[in-house]
Amino acid sequence: GADGTICVGSDDYYVYALNPADGSVRWKYYAGIYVDSSPAIGADGTIYIGTDEGSVYALNPADGSVKWKYLTGGWLMSSPAIGADGTIYIGSFDYSVYAIH
Fold it and tell me: Which long-range contacts link 15-21 to residues 24+ away (Cβ below 8 Å)?
């Protein structure tokens, strides 16, 4: 993140935000399923990540609360990418690429 926070997904069903200085957990969000994709961070700091249930989450960088969730038709093991206009792109196991704006 802009302040150096490190965000990662995990197979223990959580998304973690870690302090860069010492690796301590700043916050964690329980997604309820594997989080195999790496996060992407938007211009406003929003954290976008996909899960194995097929959901794209937009998380608040301050506390990990959910801003919104979008359900695709398949697992999301790829990492989201963010276009210049803020559109989130992510590939799904349903043989589709989603563009979410």
Answer: 15/39, 15/47, 15/49, 15/57, 15/59, 15/64, 17/47, 17/61, 17/64
